[in-house]
Amino acid sequence: MKPHVGVIASYDFTREAELRRWFPPGVEHTLTFTERVAYRDNLELVSGLGSPDLLAEPTRTLVERGALAVAYLCTACTFVDGVAGERALRKAMTDHGAPRALTTSGAVTAALHAVGARRIAVVHPYQPPVDRRLSAYLEASGFEVVALTPLGLDAVDDVYEVEEQDVRDKVLAGDHPDADAIFISCTALPTYDALPHLEERTGKPVIGANQATAWALLGAVGERVQGPGQRLVSVRGGGLPPSSV
Length: 245
Hints:
Elements: E1 4-9, H1 16-20, E2 28-33, H2 42-49, H3 56-64, E3 69-73, H4 76-79, H5 82-95, E4 101-103, H6 104-114, E5 119-124, H7 130-140, E6 144-150, H8 164-174, E7 181-184, H9 194-202, E8 206-208, H10 209-220
Parallel strand pairs: 1-2, 1-3, 3-4, 5-6, 5-7, 7-8
């Protein structure tokens, strides 16, 4: 019987086809979405999507379909309220029946630790003050953020127009000599094919939000991600935080 995992994505998630590339044929996965939230700016959007109450119905749906582990696939939504907020989201999923629960932000920190990162350069699409909350979350999780580079988008919705080459260019420009790893934040960005190229160019692990989520989710059920040339793929486990198991 194939292991079954579940993914809750924010209602505006558009990278389902890319996410699917990390899942091996032997794993069944179901994707569901949050309800829409009203917002006037970046902070209000991710704060609304960071509410634990938003996860009740999609979690129950995934559990009813047999998911052995559930991930909330959204980066800013899961770091916006800090480490305590990320923990509250996982608790909401377990409270609604998820046997194991994780978030993108929790998966990212686990992945960074797994590749031995301590000092990281970050590339992101966010507007202030969301970018500062990202830095604070990473620092509270044990990392030193040595560079925080925005994509320079004018509006929240501009993230959907970002091309893979834009991501490559910004990561190479945003690398820092003191960084021992690079993190590309946001599940809306195309990264699957960019990651091996960037790791070769920089000589460092490069972690993407969707990649880390798939890695941790599959690791929770004893499986491994697929992603040729991606350094994280070679790291066994999944690195779920102790409180989520």
